[in-house]
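FORM 7B: Structural annotation worksheet

SECTION A. Query
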Amino acid sequence: MFFFFRISADCQRISHTIGNDVHLILRNIVQGTGAFITLMTLSWPLALSSLLICSILSAIFLIYGQYQKKAALLAQDSVASANEVAQETLSLMRSVRAYGTEREEFQRFKKWLDRLAFVGMRESVASGFWILSFKTLYRSTQVFAVLLGGMSILAGSVSAEQLTKYVLYCEWLIYAAWRLQDSMSSLLQSIGACDKVFQFMHLPPSPEFLSKGLKLQRLTGCVDFVNISFHYSSRKMVPILKNVNFSIQANEVVAIVGISGSGKSTLINLLLRLYEPISGEIFINGIPLKEMDIRWLRQNIGFVGQEPHLFHMDVKSNITYGCFRSISQEEIEFTARSAYAHDFISALPSGYDTIIDDNLLSGGQKQRIAIARALLRDPTILILDEATSALDAESEGYIKDILHSLTEDSRRRTVIIIANSFHRLSMIKAADRILVMSDGQVVEIGSHIELLETNGLYAQLFHKQTDAPASIKHQKEGRVE
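SECTION B. Predicted structure
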């Protein structure tokens, strides 16, 4: 969030610079050049003395300008951080009030404002020094011009008219130099403040905008992970995946289970090419994933995450999001019915044209819209990352029936189910195969019955999570007795 606050503030600064400072710089360059040429025609010794004053001003400005650039960078950071704290506090106001941390959050916000005030104060002192230097040199130039000009008049080398013109054009030159350097100061502030924008602009394009890879005539949904290892660049000593090997056949329903942090979601991120493996290769239809066109591949994969993310758009646009073909209203409503979402969507104030707001829909309703979005694409590979975790039992029953009907639809869809727990056991048991992960490795593969019979990690997790509710119920019954 800090990044977006910072980018927004930097872009506003760039807009101000382009709209105000650039044309002032050009105008003052032209005005100063014209004044200097005129001074040279009047008296080149006097003109050179004015040029000396401008050079001294420029030297002072170089020091002042570098400070302004650094100060602007610190100020933009402080503003962005203060905005981030304010936004975070307001969005989590219920938690803040529940824990009584209003004073602490105020101090967090105040810390960045104090830093901004400190930077602004030092910037004001530097600006005052710059203005004092200009005024001193400017008045010194006037005194010097009168003294030198008076001596030249007495010597007969300069007329009173020439001296008057010199004083006027000298003022033009020095003020043009001052305004030029003042505009340059604002420009340097913008350059310093917009450092993040320039860094962002120089980032290399994402691979999907460069890739001209393969686009297959038909995607069957056969997936192979071969010796896949992965770690995050910031934590190279902490491996997430270690030599993972498994295959998913076309039209197969596979559940991947394991405790949190075992690497399940990382596998999906690699399949979507959100990350690249450190070693090993992923194949789809026998073709290396990195040789395929990323955008085309993602258009053939449907993904429903654990936490539904909807955009601040109408319901219809959220369902059709990422689907680039022409879609009729009938298709949208049919898909919504398939995801058990049509009834509550129709009950909204404007139906499918209702703008989605954070407090408008429940978690289960958002999840059903997200499932409808994935189903509308008719994907060859459907990924469900705890996709039914936010649904009640009734809604989950409908969704489960729909998903099973899709997998049986001419057996043309591969379904990958990610499960962190066994609270949705029916979804896991319905899988053709179950992959059990632990510590970044696939440790068991088999059906639900086969894995229970082997009495391995899957059986331990299953009994641990399914026996707990029964144990709690037994304890409650004992207290009642």
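SECTION C. Observations
The chain has two domains: 2-201, 223-300+379-480. Residues 468-481 have pLDDT under 50 and may be disordered.

SECTION D. Sign-off
Analyst initials: ____
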